[in-house]
Amino acid sequence: MVGQPVAVSMLKSDANVSFSGFMYTFVMFPARDADNDGVPDESSKDNDGDTLDDLTEIQGIAFNPVTPTDTQLADSDWDGVVDQLELVAGTDPRDPTSYLKINEINITNQNFVINWKGRANIDYQVLLYTNLLYTNDIFASPTLSSTNGTGDWEITWLSWTNNIDIDAKYYRINVVQ
Predict the structure, then answer these.
(1) I need a surface site. Which of 8, 31, 74, 165 has the fewest CB within 10 A?
(2) Pair 149, 112 in one domain
(3) What is the C-alpha separation between 68 and 12, in angstroms, rounded?
């Protein structure tokens, strides 16, 4: 005999709605709005507002390797970089130590050597600025990339030497898309 062993039921309070029935129980939170966009999470395709839809975050298919992320947190690893930007940079959205940054600047023969951890097969540029507002970059390096990386995330070290005679005081790594 096939059938529903118990009737489908619904319990409702101000905070949540609980449904139960044949082989499943789930709870909905109609008032929750994680990204404060005015659309309840149960009706939103992107609960956390990171521009990755929830199904993509749950499946992890936007990232290579496949890496599910938290649908309620725009920054799943709490490193200060939202998951969408980690996708662009090729960094691991579940590792708080994995984000795009300049790791060191060395001075060699009066040239600045900028080093950073990147990802194989992603193109980068070093932008040079004269102020911290990052307005009007005064120089952009050639596109830099590497075809070799290690581990699941294909991590690689990249370097660029500023031997240009300009008065740049600030450097920024940019992902070229």
Answers:
(1) 165
(2) yes
(3) 31
Stretch 110-116: mean pLDDT: 88
Highest mean pLDDT among 8-12, 40-44, 80-84, 169-173: 80-84
**Quick check: is 2 in a domain?**
no
Domain that holds residue 131: 102-176
Tokens representing residue 174 in the block = 């940019």
pLDDT tens-place string over residues 19-50: 555 555 555 666 777 777 777 766 778 878 88
Q: Is 3 domain-assigned?
A: no
Both 172 and 156 in one domain: the answer is yes
State whether 16 and 37 are in the same domain: yes
Average pLDDT, the chain: 82
